[in-house]
């Protein structure tokens, strides 16, 4: 499959078309490096990463059986990063009771000199809709830093319910869950494929 072919697409009434395509660790590394090392990406924990570090990290994800990375597009231009993983095998192993249909998610909005009102919410809505487009996915699990209050508010806006703090090796995280029904109630949307 071409890396330019979208896997999922949706139109936001106010902000236009959002899509998700596979990430290419080689051709996308320079773009990603600028995103993950930006001061606004402090919670991504890659502030001091070199370009080869970023390339290696996303090559590792591309080769992983239970972890995928994607580039999100807004009106055809790269605008966000999305990662999907199996929380029963990565990130949260032993920290919660995994259920069939669980999927873990990370997202990062690219830095912008001209922010659009509602953009980050449209991004997380797109990410969640794309995850729920897979009929096997029943619940999305996230573990953002307990201090990342901005993302907690965004998570709650799309239906996440915080459960409890959990201690991970790199941070204290707020374990939160969002079922398909909670997402649909919060946003009025359902996941749909291209």
Let me know the number of strands. Answer: 8
| Major beta-sheet overview | 8 strands, mixed
Number of helices: 5
Structural class: alpha+beta
Q: What Rg do the Cα atoms give?
A: 16 Å
Strand residue content: 25-35%
Tell me the series of helices and strands, N- to C-terminal.
EEHHEEEHEHEEH
Strand order of the largest sheet: 1-2-3-4-5-6-8-7
Termini separation: 15 Å
Shape: globular
- Unreliable stretches (pLDDT < 50, length at least 5) are none
Output mean pLDDT: 92
User: Can you give the helix content as a percent range?
Assistant: 25-40%
For this entry, give a set of tags.
globular, 5 helices, eight-stranded mixed β-sheet, single chain, alpha+beta
Strand and helix map with partners:
Blueprint: E1 8-12, E2 16-22, H1 29-36, H2 51-63, E3 67-74, E4 77-85, E5 102-109, H3 119-132, E6 139-142, H4 149-157, E7 161-167, E8 172-179, H5 180-187
Parallel strand pairs: 5-6
Antiparallel strand pairs: 1-2, 2-3, 3-4, 4-5, 6-8, 7-8
Account of the protein in words:
It is built from five helices and eight strands. The mean pLDDT is 92. It has 194 residues and is α+β, with helices and mostly antiparallel strands. It has an eight-stranded mixed sheet, sandwiched between helices.
Q: Briefly, what is this?
A:
The protein has 194 residues and is α+β, with helices and mostly antiparallel strands.
């Amino acid at each position: 499959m071409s890396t330019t072919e979208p896997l999922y697409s949706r139109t936001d009434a106010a902000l236009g078309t959002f899509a998700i395509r596979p990430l290419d660790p080689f051709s996308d590394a320079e773009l990603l490096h600028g995103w993950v090392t930006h001061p606004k990406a402090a919670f991504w924990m890659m502030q001091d990463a070199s370009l080869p570090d970023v390339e290696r990290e996303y090559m590792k994800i591309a080769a992983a059986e239970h972890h995928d990375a994607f580039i999100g597009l807004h009106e055809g231009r790269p605008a966000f990063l999305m990662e999907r993983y199996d929380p029963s095998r990565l990130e949260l192993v032993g920290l919660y009771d995994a259920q069939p249909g669980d999927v873990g998610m990370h997202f990062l909005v690219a830095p912008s000199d001209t922010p659009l009102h509602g953009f980050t919410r449209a991004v997380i809505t797109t990410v969640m809709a794309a995850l729920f487009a897979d009929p096997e996915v029943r619940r999305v699990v996230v573990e953002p830093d307990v201090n990342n209050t901005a993302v907690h508010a965004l998570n709650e806006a799309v239906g996440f319910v915080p459960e409890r703090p959990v201690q991970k090796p790199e941070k204290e995280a707020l374990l939160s869950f969002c079922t398909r029904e909670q997402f649909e109630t919060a946003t009025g949307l359902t996941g749909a494929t291209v």
